[in-house]
Design a protein that fits this description.
This protein is 23% helix and 23% strand. By secondary structure, it is of the alpha+beta class. It has one domain: CNF1/YfiH-like putative cysteine hydrolases, CATH 3.60.140. A hairpin with a 4-residue loop joins strand 7 and strand 8.
């Protein structure tokens, strides 16, 4: 059994955007669910994370995660913490060789960062709220503080909900535009009145470009591809119930 993942062309460090395939979980969590906060059996999640760590060439004790809250907090990782005991934050950065940063998502954008020359890496959980609140810029600032050079930073925006799948209402659109009026270009008319389709990965890339960081978009739609990805929106539209999360990992 091996965990399934894809890589970006721009990051010159070990990394992987993992799918939901290649794990041990069953049912609605099938099969590579990596969310500690899910109702999946904790031992299954532990085994799935061990498979992810193996794929990344590190021990499972070196793969760290955080309690994500859709904010802009960044945790600097000097020493890995125990499984399931991560602090509350939505991003991590490290310069410690062999430390693997894991970001879990199920429609939000996982964004991985690297300055391969400095050996500094970062990972962010960027839903619309976190991205609008500045989590991506906060990662850039934290990486520079650890010795990265802004002009050398590269980022990759992994599997997330795509514009064609992301219908939003006026209150959502208005809140995003209050924070960044120029973001209007990331909304197109929806299929229903007073609805718009939002381009989350494009919005993330534009915010990174504004602070001088080139970002690659993998272009994989979590909502549309049920065989490969968990999706919060698909779960809601199907009537709710439990859900798993895929993980994205970058190694210093």
């Amino acid at each position: 059994m091996s965990a399934d993942y894809v890589v970006a062309s721009t990051l010159r460090v070990r990394h992987g955007f993992f799918t939901r395939r290649g794990g041990v979980s069953a049912g609605c969590y099938a099969s590579l669910n990596c969310s500690v906060s899910s109702a999946d059996a904790l031992e299954n999640v532990r085994q799935n994370r061990a498979l992810v760590a193996e794929a990344m060439g590190v021990g499972v004790e070196s793969l760290v995660g955080i309690r994500q809250v859709h904010g802009r907090g960044v945790q600097i990782v000097d020493v890995p913490w125990l499984f399931g005991h991560g602090p509350e934050a939505d991003a991590m950065v490290t310069r410690q060789a062999g430390v693997a940063l894991g970001i879990v998502t199920a429609d939000c954008a996982p964004v991985l960062f690297a300055d391969s020359q400095a050996g500094v890496v970062g990972g962010a959980h960027a839903g619309w709220r976190g991205a609008s609140g500045g989590v991506l810029e906060a990662v850039v600032d934290a990486m520079v503080e650890l010795g990265a050079r802004q002009e050398r930073l590269r980022a990759a925006i992994g599997p997330c909900i795509a514009q064609a799948s992301y219908e939003v209402a006026r209150d959502f659109r208005d809140e995003v535009l209050r924070g960044l009026p120029q973001a209007e270009r990331f909304f197109v008319a929806g299929r229903r009145p007073e609805r718009w389709q939002f381009d989350l990965p494009g919005y993330c890339r534009a915010r990174l470009a504004a602070c001088g960081v080139d970002a690659e978009i993998l272009g994989l739609d979590t909502y549309a591809d049920e065989t490969r990805f968990f999706s919060h929106r698909r779960r809601v539209l199907n009537g709710g119930g439990p859900i798993g999360h895929q993980i994205s990992v970058v190694v210093a």
